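One record is given unchanged without comment:
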Amino acid sequence: MTSSEHELEAKLASLSSYVQELENWLADPPDPGRPGALQRIVERMVQVIVECAADAGDLWRAARGHTLGGSVREGFTRLQDVGALAPEVTSRFFDYARTRNRIVHDYNHLDAGEVMRQAQQLPADARTVIRSLLAG
């Protein structure tokens, strides 16, 4: 196994760990007396999962000589272009990336309901990315 394959494997293991952590927080939220705690935890987990998935996609494409994306969104587009992701998964990652940008740059108020909705779908989509990159 090459060093880039090891790096990709490690990144996918991290991604899997982050997905499990998000699912654990959603299943067992923090103290209800702190209503903003779960929101902040979920926002951070969405950010980390999207960034980790994008990094894994970059590593996968680089190892195969494919063009890298200049942005998180473009990276997912490139994965779709080479057949690694289905259009509907790519489209959802566009939404996740948009939310990630709003979290990171504090562009404007986030819709807590939308963030939670995305957080509930994101683990399945992240696992799709993991399976796809491991298979390809």
Notes: The CA atoms of residues 6 and 135 lie 15 Å apart.
